[in-house]
Amino acid sequence: MKWSKKHLLSIEDLSVSEINTILDNAFSFKEVLLRPIKKVPALRGKTVVNLFFEPSTRTLVSFALAEKHLSADSVNISAKTSSVLKGETLLDTAKNIESMKTDMVVIRHASPGSAKFLAERIDSNVINAGDGIHEHPTQALLDLMTIKESLKKFKGLKILILGDIQHSRVARSLLWGFNKLGIETTLCAPPTLIPPFINNFKVNIEYDIDKAIKDKDVIYILRIQLERQKGGLFPSLREYVKYFSLTQERFDAIKRRSIIMHPGPINRGVEIDGSVADSSKSVILDQVTNGVAVRMSTLYLLNGGSNE
User: Fold this and answer.
1) Is the pTM value of this prediction over 0.85?
2) Which of 48, 169, 208, 214 shows its CA 20 to 30 Å from the CA of 69?
């Protein structure tokens, strides 16, 4: 299909056809990453600004590498090095950047809706790299790519999302994607970490982790986001580990073909045992590799590329 969207703001906005277009292109771009010279001229002459107002390692580096592999010129700007510290607004920052004749802006911001706010007010293409607890579309897309690569299909799969769903923008994006693609999804977390937004989705809820993990094709683990929590959502980390962590003992009980996923960063010994994260069933590092390919695909399509 010919790509028509100017921005990538959410998985909610994408059709199944658009999701598959991004993934098809991502698989093609993954082949580029295997070459001795990992570069194609698709974005030669284009300038991309990575505007990150929250800390990031994987997402920022992944976008920066994707831009370099596509031959784009890129600039990284963080809140600590921008005029935001002097009182400048997000819009003024973006307008000033755009006045320097940039073509694309990749934004991460603590406020839900910040990427959409920007997209409605500047001419550059905007990619949402995480807006508060709202969405993280490229993370969900790289996760979908990893699932398809590992299990060869979407329809009929059973996937468990385990952990801090309340504060997870990744969970919301994944739920939109899973629902659109016909994936049966179960959530498992303390009741205080199950958010109201799940009413928008067709999901199962299970509070007993040992029941939840038994028949799943994918166990997707989320980090406990203490930095976003107000406190008092569960008694202690020790109790969380006891009732909701994917320990080695629980890992030994799951389906032989199940894969383990995590968006990172990992809190080893909290939501997942370190030995489980490093096991042969873990595709966590594949997720990181696929992140570069998905972001190459997204940048390419927003620049007018096509898979026709």
Assistant:
1) yes
2) 169
